[in-house]
Amino acid sequence: MSPPWANLAGMAIGGPLYGVYFVLYVSSTYLLVRRSAGAHAGPLYRSVIFIAGLVLFLAVTANFFLSVIRPFLGFIGHPAAPGAFFDDNSQITTTVQNIFASLAVLISDGIIIYRLWVVWGRNKYVIVLPCLTLLGLLIALILTVETTTHVDDISLDKGLTPGLVFTLTTNLYSTGFISWKIWHITKASSSVTGSNLRDLLTIIVESAAIYTVWAVFYIVTHQINSNVQFIALIPLPSVAGIANALIQSRIGLGKAIERTVPSGRSYSVSNSSNPPPLRFTTNGPQGNEATAIGRSDLTELKPMSL
User: Fold this and answer.
1) Which residue intervals are annotated with compositional bias (Polar residues) in the record (predicted)?
2) Cα separation, 69 vs 62, whole angstroms
3) 17: pLDDT confidence band, cut at 50, 70 and 90?
4) How far apart are CA 60 and CA 138, in angstroms?
5) Residue 299 belongs to a domain
6) Domain that holds residue 182
7) Which of 289, 275, 280, 273 is nearest to 259 (CA)?
8) pTM here?
């Protein structure tokens, strides 16, 4: 498959995926705004999840816009030799698109690291590895953007494969630890609230699996130097956006169970239409704390003194 047709195929696949992401993002934003009007919710402009999601949406949208514009520039602006246009990585549209794609991947990884930090009671040690892989990803993406402006053969770009390995490591590590923490805290009442818990874990795992599988698809096609890699690369930011929007949609729906685990380990389940967030206690230097997880992610899940 030639680069022009691979770019067209990437746009054809990326269009519906961006449409899915757009619907999920708008829906989750509406739900978050509605929940922010609650008495216990903080303002949206102070929510890391909301702000990061907004920047991610802008980056993914800009990337998709350029993925639509570039085929027109190639086939209409260079009808005699569209292949030369798509092979020319010095094109300003290529550089800008690479920048927005890199920004989308970085923000997506940053969001999941932040979520990991919150769920683990703001434990800074648990995020050491993903922070290092995020730093490695940043360096690899800078090298990629800089290198692709000077080489025509994308296989010569040595930053792409390490960058994808870093982002895979970040997502696998963070998703695994988030899922384990929630399961460990709530396993005592799984017989009562198992279905809701399974729904939450399913969304966490499946949303990460979507991005992971797509990233592996890109790594394989890049390693064999196939032009099919453009089909995987162009929609990649949209897939990253979907992975995060699925979680944010779940948060906005407010379907989390409420479980308070004080020192006496008593449990309660709320069946109200707008239940409070899931909470658990940890013993820290300042005494017992209850940390809200789940739907209160909108308010950045700040610890609350009991």
Assistant:
1) 280-289
2) 11
3) very high
4) 17
5) no
6) 3-256
7) 280
8) 0.76
Give the amino acid at 153. D
Least confident span in 79-93, 100-114, 208-222, 261-275: 261-275
pLDDT of residue 268: 39
Could you tell me the two tokens for 291? 């940390």
**Domain containing 97 — which CATH number?**
1.20.1070
| Residues composing the chain | 306
- What does the alpha-carbon distance between residue 305 and residue 197 come to, in Å, rounded to a whole number? 25
The C-alpha angle 192, 194, 197, rounded to 5 degrees, equals 125
User: Residue with structure tokens 């990061």?
Assistant: 52
